[in-house]
Design a protein that fits this description.
Length: 639
């Protein structure tokens, strides 16, 4: 049970923090590249040799850019410049984290070592310093990685201990106090950290062992010839790794495994099959896109699904198995979308989306979403691509028209969208907005049976929005349903990345506010939003309270994995502490229809017949709610 102040404007229940664009981080990295490389060089251990340490430091800094908009580390009020640059702070944090990880012993690493810049025929190392610099390097080599990082952040970055703690904690250091204590044992030699001996950007070059290099060249030529012969044999049709792209090596050669990798055995449905089929779901989607005949692309997509390699980014909604298909799947789409080649497949249980850059296969991604039991409403669209906070959908073949509207503004119109081969234009995704919630864009889909709204929650399949009693929810399209959803649209951010299938908003009660008759205000609304998942478990329930004129609803109670507000248990009881305009505090509680009485115990005592309870309370009081239904059964407050 939470408090709401009538005198204070409500804020969105789930605000987001500031984020850093890739361009901002890149500008900071380029501008401060020498300092970042020096920082990485100081944190890395010296046991690998100065030459390899130099290359590793450069590699870590060059790989420190984020992949997209990323929350920046908190920066206190400081002067402008490098110390106040959030992009620099983000890149510095990533450099420290990866340098600490690269310095762990190999037996403890759960990751691949970083790819190093290649320098052929030369050995590179920093210029030699004086005796003091050598002594400091030897002293730092005896410290742990976190202690070296603490020393470098103090001396090179001039950070106070409070900010050093924050950087080390964000880098995954568990014993920050121990690292700072260990760094205290180093004599105050911060001035030496700027010396040439610790500058990996000012280097000396020497040749490698020339005789050994000649012998290695001869051996490499022989091995290359043998590899070319083997590669030709392995690349023959029906076997080997020939067209599998970023997939891992094959580990099964059974007939069923080979059939699942054969693009010629993919299931392809007629474009008109959905018109006569007894089922209306993903199984009757035709194959669309300009690359449905690209056997090499389809082969790579199937191979990566069966055995994704280390370079493939794999994601799956909760409860979705990520293994290979049991047999040849159904092809739904293959084409070029924005800057990637995309393939969408369906195996009866899951949607799989394979995407690779247009200029190669490095950076390929594989996404899974569970869609078993999807009917006409649940199979209305899938996500084709995401670009810079925008999303593009592929709609079902039965969708006649599509549009976009703001769920926060029920009186606003709908912007019609042009569908090109079932593909929508890019739309702003509400699930990816970093700023506080001011709007919530949803997709309108219209077919021969009616109009529905779906929303992107950061997953492969958008969630269906409904409104009304749990036994008979209605599509959230009519004026009444849109007004119900408007104050609570931003609460959908709590449902992100949870494998959500549908979200229903149920206005289960209205409650007069104390003093409302004098102020001329109407009753407050109680709404229960329930998100059901494709896997069945993990449902999320929010009981929300909205006062007249407020922009947002307040979350009064929430629960997970409970049947409340659903088809199995269409009832709910919730309460909230509310302050009137005169400054008095009240406990307001409401139950769904069929609640005969409500009682509060604990920090607030009171009871009432019917399903509404209003009791004077103290600020911060906590109460336990219970009620009795018309049939005599007991009900407790949502929690």
């Amino acid at each position: 049970m939470q408090s709401q102040d009538a005198d204070q404007p409500s804020a969105p229940p789930f605000p987001a923090g500031p984020a850093v664009d890739v361009e901002q981080a890149e500008a900071a990295l380029v501008e401060h590249y020498p300092r970042l490389v020096r920082l990485a060089y100081l944190v890395l251990p010296s046991g690998t040799g100065r030459g390899r340490r130099v290359l590793t430091a450069h590699s870590l800094v060059q790989r420190a850019l984020p992949r997209g908009r990323t929350p920046a580390p908190a920066i206190p009020a400081q002067p402008a410049g490098r110390d106040g640059d959030r992009g620099y702070a983000l890149v510095r944090q990533e450099v420290v984290r990866t340098a600490l990880r690269a310095g762990r012993p190999p037996r403890r690493r759960a990751h691949l070592p970083p790819l190093l810049p290649q320098v052929w025929g030369l050995r590179l190392f920093p210029r030699p310093g004086g005796a003091d610099g050598l002594a400091l390097d030897q002293r730092l080599s005896t410290l742990s990685g976190p202690a070296r990082a603490a020393h470098a952040l103090r001396g090179l970055e001039r950070l106070p201990d409070g900010e050093v703690r924050a950087v080390l904690t964000a880098a995954g250091v568990t014993d920050v106090d121990g690292a700072l204590d260990e760094a205290d044992a180093v004599p105050d030699a911060y001035r030496l950290l700027d010396s040439p001996e610790f500058d990996p950007c000012s280097l000396q070059a020497r040749p490698t062992d020339l005789l050994r290099r000649r012998r290695r060249l001869r051996a490499a030529l022989v091995a290359g010839a043998a590899l070319a012969v083997c590669g030709t044999l392995l690349g023959l049709p029906g076997d080997g790794w020939g067209g599998d792209g970023p997939a891992a090596p094959p580990y099964a050669r059974t007939p069923s495994a080979r059939a699942a990798l054969d693009p010629g055995k993919l299931t392809r449905v007629s474009p008109t099959a959905w018109k006569t089929s007894a089922r209306t779901d993903f199984s009757v989607w035709p194959a669309r896109g300009a690359l449905t005949g690209d056997r090499h692309l389809l082969r790579r997509a199937l191979a990566v699904w069966a055995r994704p390699g280390r370079s493939v980014q794999v994601s799956a909604t909760p409860g979705t198995p990520a293994g290979g298909p049991p047999g040849p799947p159904q092809l739904l789409y293959a084409g070029t979308v924005d800057t990637a080649r995309v393939v969408i497949l369906y195996d009866g249980l899951r949607i799989a989306r394979y995407a690779e850059p247009q200029d190669g296969t490095r950076g390929a991604a594989l996404d899974f979403a569970r869609v078993d039991g999807a009917g006409r409403a649940g199979a209305g669209a899938v996500v084709l691509s995401r670009t810079d906070g925008n999303v593009r959908f592929l709609t079902a073949p039965w969708v006649r028209a599509a549009g976009e509207r703001d769920l926060r503004a029920p009186g606003s119109g709908t912007r019609d969208l042009t569908l090109t081969g079932g593909v929508t234009p890019l739309l702003a995704s509400p699930a990816l907005k970093p700023e506080p919630c001011a709007s919530w864009n949803v997709l309108r889909l219209t077919d021969g049976t009616g109009t529905r709204l779906v929303t992107d929650l950061g997953e492969l399949v958008p969630a269906l929005l409904t409104a009304g009693p749990p036994e008979v929810p209605r599509p959230a399209w009519g004026a009444r349903e849109l007004r119900t959803w408007a104050p609570f649209a931003c609460s959908l951010s709590a449902m992100r990345s949870a494998g959500v299938r549908s979200v229903n908003a149920w206005a289960f009660a209205e409650q007069p506010l104390p003093g409302a008759s004098r102020d001329g205000a109407g009753p407050a609304a109680w709404v229960c939003t329930r998100a059901d998942t494709w896997r069945g478990g993990g449902s999320r329930v929010l009981a929300q309270f909205h006062t007249p004129g407020g922009r947002f609803g307040a979350v009064a109670a929430k629960a997970q994995n409970v049947p409340a507000c659903g088809r199995r248990d269409p009832r709910v009881l919730a309460g909230v502490l509310w302050r009137s305009a005169s400054g008095s505090w009240y406990l307001l509680a409401a139950g769904s229809e069929g609640t005969a009485s409500v009682r509060a115990t604990g920090g607030v005592e009171g009871s009432a017949r019917g399903r509404l309870l209003t009791v004077r309370a103290e600020k911060g009081a906590r109460a336990y709610l219970e009620g009795t239904l018309d049939n005599g059964e007991a009900i407790t407050g949502l929690r």
